[in-house]
Amino acid sequence: MAAAAAAAAVGGPQPPQPELPAPGLALDKAATAAHLKAALSRPDNRAGAEELQALLERVLSAERPLTAAADGEEAAVAGGGGGPGAAEEEALEWCKCLLAGGGGYDEFCAAVRAYDPAALCGLVWTANFVAYRCRTCGISPCMSLCAECFHQGDHTGHDFNMFRSQAGGACDCGDSNVMRESGFCKRHQIKSSSNIPCVPKDLLMMSEFVLPRFIFCLIQYLREGYNEPADVPSEKDLNKVLQLLEPQISFLEDLTKMGGAMRSVLTQVLTNQQNYKDLTSGLGENACAKKSHEKYLIALKSSGLTYPEDKLVYGIQEPSAGTSTLAAQGFAGATGTLGQLDSSDEEDQDGSQGLGKRKRVKLSSSTKDQSIMDVLKHKSFLEELLFWTIKYEFPQKMVTFLLNMLPDQEYKVAFTKTFVQHYAFIMKTLKKSHESDTMSNRIVHISVQLFSNEELARQVTEECQLLDIMVTVLLYMMESCLIKSELQDEENSLHVVVNCGEALLKNNTYWPLVSDFINILSHQSVAKRFLEDHGLLVTWMNFVSFFQGMNLNKRELNEHVEFESQTYYAAFAAELEACAQPMWGLLSHCKVRETQEYTRNVVRYCLEALQDWFDAINFVDEPAPNQVTFHLPLHRYYAMFLSKAVKCQELDLDSVLPDQEMLMKLMIHPLQIQASLAEIHSNMWVRNGLQIKGQAMTYVQSHFCNSMIDPDIYLLQVCASRLDPDYFISSVFERFKVVDLLTMASQHQNTVLDAEHERSMLEGALTFLVILLSLRLHLGMSDDEILRAEMVAQLCMNDRTHSSLLDLIPENPNPKSGIIPGSYSFESVLSAVADFKAPVFEPGGSMQQGMYTPKAEVWDQEFDPVMVILRTVYRRDVQSAMDRYTAFLKQSGKFPGNPWPPYKKRTPLHPSYKGLMRLLHCKTLHIVLFTLLYKILMDHQNLSEHVLCMVLYLIELGLENSAEEESDEEASVCGPERCHDSWFPGSNLVSNMRHFINYVRVRVPETAPEVKRDSLASTSSDSLSSLQNSGTAQVFSLVAERRKKFQEIINRSSSEANQVVRPKTSSKWSAPGSAPQLTTAILEIKESILSLLIKLHHKLSGKQNSYYPPWLDDIEILIQPEIPKYNHGDGITAIERILLKAALQSRMNKRIIEEICRKVTPPVPPKKITAAEKKTLDKEERRQKARERQQKLLAEFASRQKSFMETAMDVDSPENDIPMEITTAEPQVSEAVYDCVICGQSGPSSEDRPTGLVVLLQASSVLGQCRDNIEPKKLPITEEEQIYPWDTCAAVHDVRLSLLQRYFKDSSCLLAVSIGWEGGVYVQTCGHTLHIDCHKSYMESLRNDQVLQGFSVDKGEFTCPLCRQFANSVLPCYPGSNVESNLWQRPSNKSIQDLIKEVEELQGRPGAFPVSISSETNLSKEMESVMKDIKNTTQKKYRDYSKTPGSPDNDFLFMYSVARTNLELELIHRGGNLCSGGASTAGKRSCLNQLFHVLALHMRLYSIDSEYNPWRKLTQLVEEVNSQQGNEEQQPEVPILYHDVTSLLLIQILMMPQPLRKDHFTCIVKVLFTLLYTQALVALSVKCNEEDRSAWKHTGALKKNTCDAEKSYEVLLSFVISELSKGKLYHEEGTQECAMVSPIAWSPESMEKYLQDFCLPFLRITSLLQHHLFGEDLPSCQEEEEFSILSSCLGLLPTFYQTEHPFISASCLDWPVPAFDIISQWCFEINSFTERHAEQGKALLIQESRWKLPHLLQLPENYNTIFQYYHRKTCSVCTKVPKDPAVCLVCGTFVCLKGLCCKQQSYCECVLHSQNCGAGTGIFLLINASVIIIIRGHRFCLWGSVYLDAHGEEDRDLRRGKPLYICKERYKVLEQQWISHTFDHINKRWGPHYNGL
Question: Would you say the C-alpha torsion 932, 935, 940, 946 has a positive or negative sign?
Fold first, then answer.
């Protein structure tokens, strides 16, 4: 009712009402809206309607916005944007207000949503959206679900995958036409329409009035904006208009999202024809509307479409004069058609040069109705909206709006019909489009939603001629790129084919249309209509014939082709998509008897099209030489429908076959392809370039083979089974050009083939015959048998991953065929034939994937070489399969030698094809087999083992498939007069085998040996004359035979033979004139096939009389012939098997075999044979032996390399010894000797010619990642989980240093701690040494090397010349012995006091080095340069911590921290403790000794002022003279108890002259241990609470006077507490302190444990240091005794210490000065500090010493959890969703990979993060690819994935989208490589990232 009212309102055009001032309008929209709504609700709403009308006229007038924009365009003024924008916003505001009828718009939206009966999801998405597809739930193969619906539904155990949408799509949840209801999600399961209340009338009343105007306004904008220029409109203009309309379309889109109620209103509006007519007719006085309508008509016309007002007028095709007349007619009457096809369809003018006329004729016959292409009439808004959507090339917003409406059923139907109506127009626009890719995607985005629904497709097919339209449109599309076919008869050919070089084919522009066609053919009801409609079938075959013979190849005979065309990609894609896939679609509906009629139709029109084709190319009987096309879609249609007819429809084959002549024609081209394949593999086409090989490979490749080679071979099988076998066999050999080779003569002349190609062509011909005769794919195998055979063939070539198997097995390309990859049958067959090999991991090895490998019984019984040969794309795969087969036989002990391909029993033939076996029983084949056996026996040239193998295979096939048992009496098959020219009496192989052939007449060149022998023979014996009289010498010519047969067939088959048979011109084949004359010779043969076989047996075995009939010993053999020993073996076995079968089939044969064996064969002269053998037969074997030798050498080399790698590289193999150890300690060696790996000389390192270690320096932050809690951090996968780096080792040390720097003197602070937790420099070596001058020349040569290296020589990077390990510096070896063994072997008896003095003096002496610093030697220069390298390895921020930049203290701190970093990292590599003891895994390649020398040399340059040397504070009591005076001005020094003891140790040792004496080292350790122990006591006292403290204070005080008070922790602790109580340290035990108090009650044991744990890290580092400096081995121990073992190893424990009573850490103390005095001195420093800063004082005392080992973040089990959280997550820096999100696995930071958004100073975010988080090493998980990427400095590499699917495979880029699960072993390997810093050594494929990641 409302609609009618609106229509009435529209009908009376309203003059605009100026009296309402515009500002007044804006004042109160809501009030106006409410008022209008009330007015319209009255029964008589005429006035209200008019008022609303007027208002809308003014608000929505299309004049304002676009005229501004248009003027802007004309005047090229960009500034016209502000005006229109504002007006549009205003208009939208008005609309919202009016819709809401005065209320708030948001409340209105909510109200409408409440009435949404949404049973469908219908969420629309665009490209790149992540969606799901579940094959278990889908009815249509295109079904897809949004992530939300997928996760809400239950798909456990289903076959689903996640995918990235290419073209966009929509969620099908809730649509039972497309998917099964069981798969619906929770929201869409309930059919909710019933319980939704009815929509109140007044809610949407305003919408019904307002929306028509709004949509009309939108259409006017679109009309206005489209300026049809002379040329194609530029993208820019269209985009500009679209940008202006963005808000309007978005508004409509929002309306659709309000749910069903609003959608149905919109549907009403869009489809109402009356509204459309009233608003857009352009009549009436409104000038604007008029102009707009005119523009619309112009647009229609320019699109080559007409606007028929009336069907009647359309009948009379009157071309109208053009637009001006239209305007004059006032748009009232009929306009006629705007020009006929030729004038308006510009496509035809392009393609019509030269071909135009003919093509036009061709088309008019086939196309039904021109109107499909040219007529469009719009009757509703929807139709015109779609028209403009197409005109504007499918803007994304419009597409989304149109699709969002689809859940409304009424709309869906209307829209689908509209879409079909515009189909031809879509095609025209698509062809012209510049952005055809984008446009194609958008078209398919729409069409797949419409055509996947069978019900809808059927309806449109019935009501709108959908099939006619599609076929016609496709035909038209291809019309535009046809060229004349050059196949066969170039001059007179009338056939046209598509030109594969055209953009249309090259860019696959046709795929949207073809994909729609395939989609609708998958619906049975639609396909049936297609198959029943004869006219359509004719048109379709016409379409297919455009592809018949496309992309013709002509063999280049003279020079190499200049330009290799790549058109073959387009050709193969076109045949597969445009011809084969529709064919498979149709075939899937021809499965049952009832569909016979369809097959007959297709076959009939297919044969007609083929007949037309043969006529068009003028084909008679000979194909043109040196041409091949791989594209014969008509043949393949014919073949596949025949196959289906016999297999599924029980049709009689002969009823659908043509006459013999047609069959002979049919077989020619497929046979030509088979011969060309052999030619291509024989390198006869090499001048055509690589692309011809590409074609040969594509033709057999898994995605194409079952639409190309399989139908071809099947068609040949059909022809062979119906044609004369002799004719067929001779055709084959003639096609393969080896006829001349098949002569008994030892020499021959081949006029069509070069000698070097003969052998491979002969092999090709025989192999083809074997395939033809043994392949049963279409001849009786069931689908499961086929699947099994395919799978076995693929697995035999190589072990395969699950996904590659899915990819390699040619599935039936039609999705509905039932054998879908991953279906039940696939999995069950796979588990039957293959075993799964789970991936294994060797550290440092390659990442393997889960593989399937054939079961033993498959090798034993099912390995089928024929299938393997058919399916191999690369020839090497056949060899690979044979090698694997050989290995299996050796391993299982079945056969030791080199086996031949096994003979495999075939599935029985379908009765219709029985005729095929006649090929095996025809004389021609027998003559060929006989000739070849004879030639092989006589060692003629160009024969190979492969030829013999195939000959035997054919004989065996013949025996297996022989006719009924022949009678034993020699019945003469034909009278003697018949057979004088034929060699064999009959055609049965079984009897022909025993037939002896005595003499053969051959034509040979005069130079042949036979000629001379011939004359000699005639003189010496009269046998010859008698022979000539009897005339029994056999002559045979294949070619003549074939001609004769052909003639017979032709004469038989047609009375018009005379006009068909052209005189055969043999000019093409005639020999070049230079050839020597041929002469006839007669050879004496006297052999039969059986005798030749037995002689070959002797020849192969190399022994005389080697064959002995087995049945003479064991008569049983004849009864049960299946003997396993004959199944596998070489040629000898094959011959034995054949002879046995021959004997079984006929008693005569048995007798003759026995006779032949009885005659002792005359010995063959050995000399001749060996010479010939060397020539031919053993060429293969020699090759084989060479291959084996090579394998052996390679294996040996590999094992050597492996063992070398293990010693030199492997992180985890401490046992192996490396030949050159650096740290070998041999007391008698005075100087260490080094081998230079470049010049090979060995000698000591000297100052003039220093030797250096190859080292890799890298900055590392691994230490900084240690945390203090055991539980490893997890990767955050929800917003709540976050990782904060407060508790990492690096953070804690940073805080400590800055605290110290706040209160103490800077230079002193820098001695109190170590840095290098982040960005410390780690030095590692492969252990090889070289002279430093050799290294320099090596670097020079690398610099000049032009080869692209994976490293940058300019940065000093290189690979070790010996082991190729990555390195970037050379660490000089210090002259002298490597280990100062003589010095430390004599322990000195000096007291500790003396030693302390010596240490102090030695530290004071400047440079007490053998090398004086002043004299510049090569060695000192090198040491300086390596120090520079070490500094440059890490960033400045990781070395400069001083407040005064460039202060020497900085360098000092940095240098001893390098030593600390390397020791700490080694400790981590050992697992964080030294329990394992022994020489370390890293020890073998440790360079700490050399590193220490370099560091010490440089540390000595900075002598510490003795005033400040902490050594004094540790070992002397200072008189308190100037304690308080100077301190007011400057900051105090760091109290000694705040010092880091390990740092002090390194400072003390590096300050000593090198080499260091052992007793000095022990002395330093003892002194430092006293400090460490005191620190432990202080920390303990701070940790416990007040009561504990006072209790301890008393108990300790009582024991103070006992003898070993200094070694009792209770006494010392009580003293510390009493000393510190003097200060304010323990005061203000406020509430905040309770947190630090440990809740446990302290027992003596727990206190002892605390003290030991506190001291252990220091002891470990010290022991390691001692191990490296003095070469002492580390003892191994249990964890609980680690402390005592290490302390005694370090000399802290007195040797006489008894281990009976429990160990007490305090017994290690050896105080250099009275303990209580020094402790009180140290405590005093603390007290004076805590006077002012008690808080900080306490914090600094409690150090966390027990760091756990570093770990990467723990990852969740299932990859989907990571993916779902991160792939939509916004980046915290740029707040966008990154295109390539990545997450750091060390700290969990989320980054944009390659994102320009987060780039800072030319560094992208990942590179930047790798520098901040890992000092140049980053480990990132790429969210969208599931791969891990490693950044190391300026290089990066793809590491692989730690997530594998259920079959143990990676899924890089998530292409397959299967669920992925964490592989813990792989993750461990990754973590291990990170901790051990071995990324550079283990991963080989590095590339520069140029800071762009």
Answer: positive
Question: What percentage of the chain carries pLDDT values higher than 70?
Answer: 77
1553-1571 residue pLDDT tens: 877 888 888 888 988 998 8
Output the pLDDT for position 916. 92
Pairing state of beta strands 1817-1822 and 145-146? unpaired
Contact 626, 1068 (CB under 8 A): no
Q: Half-sphere exposure (CA, 13 Å, Cβ side) for 1453?
A: 24
Half-sphere exposure of 514 (CA within 13 A, CB side): 23
Kindly report, residue by residue over 906-937, the tens digit of the pLDDT: 888 999 999 999 999 998 999 999 999 999 99
Cα–Cα dist 882/868, whole Å: 10
In contact, 405 and 268? CB cutoff 8 Å: no
Query: What DSSP string describes 1165-1187?
Result: PHHHHHHHHHHTHHHHHHHHHHH
How are the residues of the chain apportioned to helix, strand and coil, as percentages rounded to the nearest 5? Answer: 55, 5, 40
What is the arithmetic mean of pLDDT over 87-91?
73
Contact 1820, 1781 (CB under 8 A): no
Q: Which residues contact 100 (CB under 8 A, 6 or more apart)?
A: 33, 107, 108, 206
Q: What is the pLDDT of residues 1169-1210, one digit of tens each?
A: 444 444 445 566 667 777 777 777 777 666 666 665 555 444
Segments in 942-1037 forming alpha helices (H): 945-960, 989-992, 1009-1020, 1023-1030
Half-sphere exposure of 1334 (CA within 13 A, CB side): 20
Owner of token pair 């899937």? 588
Cβ burial of 156 (10 Å; 0-12, 13-18, 19+) is exposed
Nearest to 389, CA basis, from 224, 222, 595: 222
d(CA 1850, CA 839): 11
- CA dihedral 803→809→812→817, nearest 10 degrees, is -60
Rounded Cα–Cα distance for residues 573 and 758 (Å):
34
**Cβ-defined contacts of 196-201 (< 8 Å, 24+):** 196/115, 196/116, 196/117, 197/115, 199/115, 199/261
- Residue 1127: φ, ψ to 5°: -70, -40
Q: Which residues contact 1627 (CB under 8 A, 6 or more apart)?
A: 1734
In the chain the first and final C-alpha atoms are separated, in Å, by 63
State both tokens at 1680: 């609980």
* CA–CA distance, 1668 with 1666 (Å, rounded to integer): 5
SS (H, E, C) 1371-1433: EECCCCCCCCHHHHHCCCCCCHHHHHHHHHHHHHCCCCCCCCCCCCCHHHHHHHHHHHHHHHH
Q: Give the other-Cβ count within 10 Å of 855's Cβ.
A: 17
Report the predicted TM-score, pTM, of the whole model to 2 decimal places: 0.82
Strands (E), 678-772: none
Query: Is the CB of residue 669 less than 8 Å from the CB of residue 635?
Result: yes
Burial of 70 (0-12, 13-18, 19+ CB in 10 A): middle
Question: Is pLDDT at 370 greater than 60 in this prediction?
Answer: yes
Q: Which residue has the tokens 């914090």?
A: 1739
Task: Return the higher-pLDDT residue of 975 and 1721.
Answer: 1721
What is the per-residue DSSP string for 798-822? Answer: S-B-HHHHHHHS---SSGGGS--TT
Tokens 């009924």 appear where?
964
Query: What count of other Cβ atoms lies within 10 Å of the Cβ of residue 1339?
Result: 15
Three-state secondary structure call for residue 138: strand
DSSP 3-state assignment of 1792? strand
The first and second tokens of residue 49, run together, are 């309607």
**Runs of H (alpha helix) within 1070-1130:** 1089-1101
Give the number of residues written for the chain: 1893
